[in-house]
Amino acid sequence: MIRRLQCKRWLYFAMVLCLFAVLLAGLIHLAANGAAHVRAMDARQFQAFADGPQGNIGSVYDSRGDLLFSPGQPVDRSVYSLVGSLSPMISNCVVQCFHGDLIGWQDYSLWQGSASLEGTGSDLFLTLDGRTQQAVTALLEGHKVSGLVAACDASTGALLCLASTPAAGSEEDVTTLPDGALLNKNLYPTTAGSTMKIVTTALLIEQAGPEALAAFRCACTGSDTLAADGTAIVCSTRQGEQDIVSALGVSCNVYFANAVEEFLAVDATNEALARCGLAPQQERKDLQMMTYSPSQVTFTDHTFASVWSLLGQVSTVSPLDMLRFTAALFHEGQAPTPYLLAAASSRDHTQLRFQADPDRQAILAPETAQQVTALWAQAYAAYYDTDLYTPYVTVAKTGTAQQGDGQVNKLLLGYSQDLDVVFFLSLENWTAQCGVTPQEVANCLLENLAASD
Ligand SMILES: [Zn+2]
What we know:
- By secondary structure, this protein is of the alpha+beta class.
- The protein has a domain at 131-338 and 363-452: Beta-lactamase (3-Layer(aba) Sandwich).
- Helices cover 38% and strands 19% of the residues.
- The chain has helices at 2-40, 43-50, 80-83, 94-97, 99-103, 130-142, 196-208, 210-215, 244-250, 253-263, 266-275, 304-311, 319-329, 366-383, 438-452; strands at 60-61, 67-69, 122-126, 147-153, 159-165, 190-191, 218-220, 223-225, 232-234, 240-242, 285-287, 290-292, 316-317, 334-336, 341-346, 352-355, 360-362, 395-402, 408-416, 421-427.
- A hairpin with a 5-residue loop joins β4 (147-153) and β5 (159-165).
- The longest helix is centred in the first third of the chain and has 39 residues, at 2-40.
- It is elongated, with a radius of gyration of 28 Å.
- The model has no long low-confidence stretch (mean pLDDT 92).
- The structure holds zinc ion (ZN).
- Residues 220, 235, 237, 239, 252-254 line the site of zinc ion.
C-alpha cells in the first residue's frame, strides 16, 4: 500500500515538473518572439489584438492638417486608393505600408502586452493637398472619366496630388467596383503619348547640340518610312516644313522620327534614359515605405518600336518619373525624389519623430535643361491656345496615346512657375463627349493648389 502511494507521488511530481517545463518554454518563447509576433500582424489584426477601435493606431493628415484617416472614420473616396484602410484590401497604401509607424511597435513590452501600445503610435502628415485631390477627383467622377492626375513640388518632390479614377469608397462592396478602383494609377506606368517629346527634345539637345538641332529641318507630308525597317511613321498634325519649335508645338511625329534617326545613338540614348530614371528596370521603385512601378522606355535600334517609344507610344512611363524629369528641367537639371510622408509625430503632436529630408539628383546638365525649357516655352507661346489654360500654367505639352482599339488617352504634362509645381495627367478613352478637357482638369488642379498656397 505504502509503495503504491510512493509510486503515485513520484508520478505526480513528474507531471508537475513537466507542466513547469512547458510553461517555462512558453514564457521563453513569448519573451523571445512576442514583439516579433505583434510586429508581424497587419493593421487589422493588431486592432483586434489591441482590443479597441481607437486609441492604439495613429491618424493620417494632409498638408493642411485636414484628417484623411483615423481608425474610427471611413477614408474619403478621393484618397482611398492611396491612403487605404485597416483592411488589407489595398496593399500598397499609406495605412498598410506605414502601419509600423501608425502603431509604434518599438514600444511594445512583454509584461504589459497590448496595453503597452496604448497611445504609442505616430500621427502621419502627408505632403498631399486633400482638398485639391477631392476637387480633381470630383471633376473626373462628375464626368465619368477614368484617369490619373499627379502633381508635385518641383523643388522638393513633395507629392501634392495623386488623384485616380474610378475612385471607390472604403465602405463599398468590392464585388461591384469598376476595374482599377482600388489601384492608384499614379503608381503604375502609362503610355506617355506626345508628352514624351519633351524627354526626346532633351535627348536631342544632348546628342546633337543646340545649334545642330535648331538648324535641323524636316518637311512633313503626313507620313514617312524609317530607314532601318521601312515601317511608316504617320503624322496627323499640321504638315509642311518643321523645325524643332514647330515640331514640338504641333507635335509632328515625322520631324521627331527623322531627328531620332539623324542624331540619337543607341548607347548614349540608353545611358541618358537610365540617368533620367526612364530606362526599364526590374524592381519596383521606392516611394518611402510604399513602391511604384518604374518606367519602361526601351530604345534598342532605329526600328519602329524603338523610335515610337521616343514619340510616346509602345513604351510606358511612370507618372512619378515624368514629374521628376520635368521638375529637373526647371531646376538646372536637378531631379527631386518624389515623397509622400512629410512628417510623423507623437499622438499628442508634441514630439516630432520623423521629418522628410528632400533630396535631388543631377540628371541633366543645367544648360541642357535650360535649352529644353526655352524651346518648350517658344512652342507653347506660338502654337498653343493659351486662353484654354489658367494663367498659373507656364508651359504645357499635350499628348494622345493610342489604345489599340481605336480609343485614345489624352495626356497633359506641364509646369507652373508661380506655384513651382509640375503636373502630369491622363484621361482614359477620352472623347469630346466626355465634357471635360485635360486643360480644364489641369486648371482645376492648379487653381486649387494656388488656393492653399
Ligand atoms: Zn507632321
